[in-house]
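Sample intake sheet
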Amino acid sequence: MIKKISSHTRFIFTLTTVVCLALILPSWYFYRSLKEEIINETKHRAVHQLDMVHWLISQKSEFQDIEALQAWLTEVGKREEARITYVATGGHVIADSEIPFSEIQNLDNHASRPEIMQAREQDIGVSIRYSGNIQKTLLYVARNIERKGAIPGGVLRLAIPFSNVNELLERLKYDFISIFSFILLAFLGISYWLVHQRSKAVRKITSSVNALADTDYKNRIHLDPDEEFYPLAQSINQMADRISKDIQTISSEKQQLEAVFNGMQEGVAVLDSRGRIQSINRALSELYMNASQGIGRKPLEVFMNLELQDACDRILASKGELGERPYSIQITLGEGKYYNVNIVRSSDLPNGAQVIVVFHDISELKRLEKIRQDFVANVSHELRTPLTSIKGYSETLLSESDLSPETLATFLNVILRNTNHMVKMVDDLLQLARLETRQTPVKPLPVHAGKALLNAWKECEPLAQDKKISLENLLPKEGILVSADFDQLVQVFRNLLENGIKYSPPNKTLTVSCQAIEQTVTFSVRDEGPGIPKQHQQRIFERFYRIEKHRGSDSESTGLGLAICRHIIRNFGGKIWVDSPNMDGTPGTTFSFTLPKASPEAEEENSKTIGVG
């Protein structure tokens, strides 16, 4: 990539070009004129010398022979400091002041020499060229000469060294170049110094502007008031102040918006004009796992819901006020995930955003609605069975007057049993309601967990004897204290033991154990029954929820025991859960719950109470 030339360099280059042209053109013209004048003067002098030699030859008496002419030309050439050549009409050299007479016959024919040819045509011929005979550059002038005695007619040529002229011209050229170089260097130095002095302020301004571009809004330009760029520097400083304030305001507002955007419980996705996801908030990435990878994609590619994609396309295609109105749909994303989606289009969004999609997670509402529906259905089912029995036997008693005392007693016992079952169910419902609303506050006290277990087993023992089920108590013999209510802890153990007895095969064992970790005690009630399928384990603590194959198998059960256990444990700060199959992989079910461990101080205060049997 070619580096861009700075304005200072361009300025100096332009100014230097102008100065060079201003110096070179006149100097070159002067040099050419002077050179032409010197050459012309040299030619004129050579012609004058040739005329002088021509006159001397014409005034001299006839030469006896050509050798005498050679001697005479040699003498005259020495005096004139010139080479004199006599060329006959055919171009043969017959005499030359610089060449011995014995070698003249070896000279080339001179008929084609420029000065010879020009002399024959114009009487005078002039030429400047390099002579191979004497290895020098010479100025040749030639002139026609008539026959004189034994000397034939031809051309008289005079040659003088041209090197002196060249040396003079070279000295002039060198002097010109030296003067020009000195002036140019001086000019460049002065120009650079002047530009450098002026560019200091420009560099300061540039540095400050670059700092602004790099978001350094604290940088300021400091120039003397008498400098040329002082007003510009002040304007830039004022602009930097305003930008700094605006950026702080924008950053603060952006942080607030991002905090609101990411702090929303609702998931939000912003779509651009092409219907592709431009951004999402943190809540949406938490609500839907694939949402964080959906930037730049359409909603259909991320949420795999055609109804949502159609709604977004409809909003994007709408115009006018219809597009500004929110559009709401309910969609399902995955098993048990329900969302109420509001889609609205706005033309006031930044960065080309067009549509806002808000996801309201209503899965919990749907779940609670399902629980309510199941609760109503279960209550109806649980009450209908005993009510049907009571109604049937009551109608029989009213319609049959001749019943035996034994039959009458049997009917009344059935009515009483079903009535007691409904009373127990209502009592459990009332207890569950009080536990949920905590209408009857219970103060946790140190409770002997082993004693609570024994009391619960005494209540369950008749049912256990019928199925020959035994209890294996693994609680510490020295006792363990937890922070709870004694009667409610007994009820938790009783409900879990009854549940294990009901669903365990005969001749099996229920195992109760505990594990203390720091300030928490975990109790486990383990049976060897058929277990609970995975799909039911999350709902067995709901009211009246039963696994279908066991529904109605025991009229004495109200279906509220596990729900009561959950609320009792939660009210004391613990939690309850189920593992099926057992943790070691054997068939059966293990119900576990945690309770806070009683403090040593409370244990000392209640040591006497613990000892009471």
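Comment: The chain has four domains: 8-169, 265-361, 367-436, 442-611. Confidence is low (pLDDT under 50) at residues 549-555, 609-613.
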